[in-house]
């Protein structure tokens, strides 16, 4: 009774305020605005004229604020009037800008979000539920290719398109095994794994990292030696944003022949599509590692019957050799596909980089790889790993999903594993999906601006599709690729401390047995959990 009375006597505005300002600086009695002002003063205090930070700070009142925020924002699902905007965007052009932002954010109780290419599926490089600052690495994107030693230093704000272009400038027989879409940033991509057409030959982008520069929670610039074995392990697949801000990576480049061969073979259900997809599952992960055959599934209009829909299986391939050898290899290993010489195109590695992204026109100049202006779609993605071939009847059930209303742009991608991926131990890096996996599945559905109010309908469709696939994919845990971020798996609490149980909902799918070591490293290097976000590795120092 007495207690109840006291509670109801608390003035409502005060209760409201105490909820809103439950951050350390509130204790100082500062208003939001004063706190913001004091944060900016802190940034400026750290600099003399050299490397002045004042030229890279965008506050909300700056007329360029929105365009800077939108420039590297790839999922417009997180660009609505209701999305919380950062107090400040710091487009760091010098390491000291990153150090100052970390130092001042800590003392002012602000969270940071770290953005390189901005391709995060759930917008985690630019979205937060509490007041925050974005460190945007777009100005730190120099690339230094050492063709003689077959290495490169790449600043974190560079895109993989820029990296591919710079390698090709120096050599036609060196390459780098990473993703297909050229606007993906190396900051997020490498730190979460990063796979593409060279994966079966050379593994992931993260597998090539031999050194890194990173600013830690204390504002210290570290390299491989000074950060120590644990942290250097964690940032190569565990998502660097839980540990610090990566400034640059040093990677090994890989050799490729000067002439490679690509092909795309499309087959619909009427052209034995189901049988071919079924066969592909046991062939593509076992075939010679110089050959990569990925498989896209989409609904298309039937060419045979007006008004009828069918499924198209699109076999998209890269072979590290000449067309003649490829035909022989396919004749021997996958004759059912019926590959013929006319399907094959010989080209250099950099031309193959231009060939695979569907949005690069055939006659585009190589410089298009330097273009960072991508369009922001509205989409929801998910992923799975498959360890046993999916039966034909289950594939037929999957085709039915493509005929639902929300599937105009549904695309499912099967990416084969095996080859070198089988040779790299599960614990070598945090990326645990190695031997035993036949292929990865990527599901993505997009919708248009006009349908934005119907987002939930599309998201629900994806959840139904994901439920349908459950019996046919990896189990205990059902695995997922952290670079195909999915908040449906679970999120951390907004507060500073997350329980192991809560975090394991997404941590085990992404990292399986490596999750415990990631928590151990996190607890060592960031005990106060400063680098936290919706799916950051939790620090258990409060245990
Ligand atoms: C169109 C498209 C195509 C894709 N294709 C592929 C593909 O072929 N293969 C593949 O493996 N993946 C692919 N992805 C997924 C991609 O690898 C991830 O989205 C990746 O995390 C993107 O990195 P980013 O720097 O562009 O993203 P961001 O959104 O900038 O960052 C992603 C995450 O990494 C963190 N981060 C970014 N930079 C740093 C840094 N410097 N230091 C510390 N943390 C950092 C962010 O805080 C965030 O948590 C694709 C994504 C899209 C949207
Ligand atoms: C916006 O911020 C940039 C970078 O700090 C600065 O150069 C520019 O003068 C600012 N513009 C306005 C209108 O304040
Ligand atoms: C940030 O703090 C670190 C460690 O306390 C210090 O070495 C560094 O000089 C500071 N940097 C800036 C720019 O504030
Ligand atoms: C290759 O590495 C060696 C040893 O580190 C170095 O001396 C040499 O300068 C490097 N080559 C180039 C082209 O930088
Ligand atoms: C395969 O189909 C896709 C559309 O799904 C089309 O863009 C591509 O040109 C086709 N390729 C060939 C070689 O037919
Ligand atoms: C489908 O497969 C059968 C048996 O392998 C084959 O005879 C037929 O030509 C194939 N059809 C097409 C359109 O490829
Ligand atoms: C498929 O057919 C529908 C009508 O039957 C049409 O509206 C649509 O544009 C067609 N799509 C393509 C890609 O041709
Ligand atoms: C870069 O790409 C965008 C989007 O695809 C396009 O609108 C723009 O014209 C391109 N710019 C250059 C210089 O090619």
UniProtKB/TrEMBL annotation:
<keyword id="KW-0134">Cell wall</keyword>
<dbReference type="InterPro" id="IPR036318">
    <property type="entry name" value="FAD-bd_PCMH-like_sf"/>
</dbReference>
<protein>
    <recommendedName>
        <fullName>FAD-binding PCMH-type domain-containing protein</fullName>
    </recommendedName>
</protein>
<keyword id="KW-0547">Nucleotide-binding</keyword>
<feature type="domain" description="FAD-binding PCMH-type">
    <location>
        <begin position="82"/>
        <end position="256"/>
    </location>
</feature>
<keyword id="KW-0274">FAD</keyword>
<dbReference type="Pfam" id="PF01565">
    <property type="entry name" value="FAD_binding_4"/>
</dbReference>
<feature type="signal peptide">
    <location>
        <begin position="1"/>
        <end position="29"/>
    </location>
</feature>
<keyword id="KW-1015">Disulfide bond</keyword>
<dbReference type="InterPro" id="IPR006094">
    <property type="entry name" value="Oxid_FAD_bind_N"/>
</dbReference>
<keyword id="KW-0560">Oxidoreductase</keyword>
<dbReference type="InterPro" id="IPR016166">
    <property type="entry name" value="FAD-bd_PCMH"/>
</dbReference>
<comment type="similarity">
    <text>Belongs to the oxygen-dependent FAD-linked oxidoreductase family.</text>
</comment>
<keyword id="KW-0964">Secreted</keyword>
<dbReference type="InterPro" id="IPR016169">
    <property type="entry name" value="FAD-bd_PCMH_sub2"/>
</dbReference>
<dbReference type="GO" id="GO:0071949">
    <property type="term" value="F:FAD binding"/>
</dbReference>
<dbReference type="Pfam" id="PF08031">
    <property type="entry name" value="BBE"/>
</dbReference>
<dbReference type="GO" id="GO:0016491">
    <property type="term" value="F:oxidoreductase activity"/>
</dbReference>
<keyword id="KW-0285">Flavoprotein</keyword>
<keyword id="KW-0732">Signal</keyword>
<dbReference type="InterPro" id="IPR016167">
    <property type="entry name" value="FAD-bd_PCMH_sub1"/>
</dbReference>
<dbReference type="InterPro" id="IPR012951">
    <property type="entry name" value="BBE"/>
</dbReference>
<keyword id="KW-0325">Glycoprotein</keyword>
